Automatic annotation (TrEMBL):
Protein name: Redoxin domain-containing protein
Domain Thioredoxin: 12-169
Record Pfam families: AhpC-TSA
Species of origin: Chitinophaga rhizophila
Gene3D superfamilies reported in the protein's UniProt record: Glutaredoxin
Signal peptide range in chain numbering: none
Length: 191
């Protein structure tokens, strides 16, 4: 009996995750479906007909600084995918986010989520954390960018598994494979 309960619970949780991400990508049931970038330009965070990568970032997080060139390279490699950086909480000003984007040469939009509506809705907890949502609204990946970081303060000499890129490749090839890894990073600010 406990095994049956476990599988029913797991099935329900997976369905909830798919429904939750489907809502942001297709129905617009959240109030934060439009966010402003650090320049003040408004962006729709659920582009129609396009897969999107949401990267939760923090200008102060050492991992976000280290990963900036990596995610910029991934974005450049996959122009058919919309990339959004999202800075959640009230800790960072537009100027601070603009300096981060300039210093690390990030060309994709970095959006301000001051009330954490998007972070809370998508259940993002740390920076950096990546989510890949297909144009159908389905969540295909959530978690680490790659396996370079093994824990807070520990890392490998070089990444050997590129989780986000693999998820993008799978999506572009028509695969229905979905998976996640546990993100490691700085907690998203509550302020």
């Amino acid at each position: 009996m406990p095994k049956l309960f476990f599988w029913v619970l797991l099935s329900g949780l997976l369905s909830f995750q798919t429904i939750t991400t489907h809502l942001i990508a297709s129905t617009g049931k959240i109030t934060g479906e439009k966010l402003k970038d650090y320049k003040g330009k408004t962006h729709t965070i659920r582009p129609k007909g396009k897969a999107v990568v949401y990267l939760f970032l923090s200008p102060e997080c050492p991992l976000c600084k280290n990963y900036a060139p990596v995610v910029q390279a991934i974005q450049s490699k996959y122009p058919e995918i919309q990339f959004y950086g999202i800075v959640s909480g009230k800790t960072f000003t537009r100027e601070m986010v603009g300096e981060y984007a300039k210093d690390y040469k990030i060309s994709f939009p970095i959006l301000m989520d001051p009330d954490k509506q998007v972070a809370d809705y998508l259940r993002a907890t740390v920076t950096p954390e990546a989510l890949l949502i297909g144009e159908n609204g389905r969540e295909y990946y959530r978690g680490l960018i790659d396996d370079w970081v093994t824990g807070l303060g520990t890392k490998r000499a070089k990444a050997s598994k590129r989780y986000l890129e693999l998820a993008i490749e799978n999506l572009l090839s028509g695969s229905d494979l979905t998976y996640s890894t546990r993100p490691i990073g700085c907690l998203i600010s509550n302020y």
